[in-house]
Amino acid sequence: MSEREDHLSKGIAHKIAGEYDQAIAELEAAITLDPACAQAHHELGLVLGFIGEFDRAIEELQRAVEIAPTDVQATLDLGLTYAMVGMSDEAKAAFEAVLKIDPGNKTAVKNLSYFE
Fold first, then answer.
1. Measured on CA atoms in the order 29, 20, 75, 89, is the torsion positive or negative?
2. What is the dihedral sign for C-alpha 92, 71, 32, 16?
3. Which 8-state DSSP code applies to residue 68?
């Protein structure tokens, strides 16, 4: 296992355990080692959202989607985060992007129905 993978794995474990400060430290370490690691940006975005740092969460989720534009889960999570903070146009665009990757995605379809 590479050092980046080690930090990523530890970061995810801390996230699951609700140890958000430790998760952030590990995920940021993974990103420092590999700034193009979409999964680390995605996971960091989720943790930041959990603790209410929505601006930073959106930045990390956007970065994850930029790196891996066909990652359905990262795009969904970005859309859900946009929706939580009232960024309706951005949320709708994210859910529509999911449907281009995964037509019929139930989560995207359901969330888009709220904008009709």
1. negative
2. positive
3. -
Instruction: Give the model's pLDDT for residue 115.
Output: 86
First-last CA distance in the chain: 47
**Tokens encoding 41:** 């940006």
Per CATH, the number for 1-54 is 1.25.40
For the CA atoms of 104, 107, 110, 116, what is the dihedral angle to 10 degrees?
-90
Give the mean model confidence (pLDDT) for residues 20-26: 98
Domain locations in the chain? 1-54, 69-116
Q: What is the pLDDT of residues 49-86, one digit of tens each?
A: 999 999 999 999 999 999 999 999 999 999 999 999 99
Number of helical H runs and strand E runs in the chain: 7, 0
